[in-house]
């Protein structure tokens, strides 16, 4: 087998692998997940955190930090990081809220999918209704038993 034939065969095998349902579904899921992550980040950063900040006196959580060095005298996180070590707990708080929202939305999606799956399984599990002929024959049999 020549190198050219091996290359073609490998490309054919790769194409078959890549076009299988699971691989394509995974790729679509990753792309949608990335877009969904950006939406949730915007929801948390642009809508939820400003509301929480306004409720707590207009403070911006992303700038909450604790200096770990006496050299840090800045009042915002970016300048404080330049001056020395800081514990940026505001960023952590924002990311934690982001994670909780993503996890909750995924929970709702999976819960809905499981509910639909259970409904479909119960439909499949129900025995088919007997035909009219079978019902009539059953009634005749029951009458003859009496």
Write down the domain tally: 2
Q: In DSSP terms, counting alpha (H) and pi (I) runs of 4 or more, how many helices? A: 5
Percent of sequence in beta strands: under 5%
How does the overall form come out from the CA principal axes? flat
Low-confidence stretches: none
Structural class of the secondary structure composition? mainly alpha
Walkthrough of the structure:
This protein has helices at 3-18, 21-55, 77-83, 89-125, 132-145; strands at 66-67, 86-87. The protein folds into 2 domains: 1-57; 60-146, no CATH class. The protein is built from 5 helices and 2 strands, in the order ααβαβαα. The mean pLDDT is 83. It has a two-stranded antiparallel sheet. With 146 residues, the protein is mainly alpha-helical. Helices cover 75% and strands 3% of the residues. Helix 2 (21-55) packs across helix 4.
Give a quick rundown of the structure.
75% of the residues lie in helices and 3% in strands. The chain is mostly helical and 146 residues long.
Helices and strands, with pairings:
Elements: H1 3-18, H2 21-55, E1 66-67, H3 77-83, E2 86-87, H4 89-125, H5 132-145
Antiparallel strand pairs: 1-2
Helix pairs in contact: 2-4
Properties at a glance:
single chain, mainly alpha, two-stranded antiparallel ribbon, about 150 residues
């Amino acid at each position: 087998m020549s190198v050219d034939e091996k290359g073609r065969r490998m490309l054919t095998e790769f194409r078959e692998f890549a076009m299988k349902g699971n691989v394509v579904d995974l790729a679509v899921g990753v792309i949608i997940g990335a877009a969904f992550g950006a939406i949730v980040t915007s929801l948390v950063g642009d809508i939820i955190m400003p509301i929480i900040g306004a409720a707590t006196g207009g403070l911006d959580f992303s700038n909450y930090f604790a200096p770990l060095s006496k050299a840090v005298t800045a009042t915002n996180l970016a300048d404080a990081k330049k001056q020395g070590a800081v514990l940026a707990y505001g960023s952590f708080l924002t990311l934690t809220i982001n994670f909780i929202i993503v996890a909750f939305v995924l929970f709702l999606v999976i819960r809905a999918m499981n509910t639909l799956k259970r409904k479909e399984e119960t439909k499949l599990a129900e025995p088919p209704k007997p035909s009219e002929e079978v019902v009539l024959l059953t009634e005749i049999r029951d009458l003859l038993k009496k």
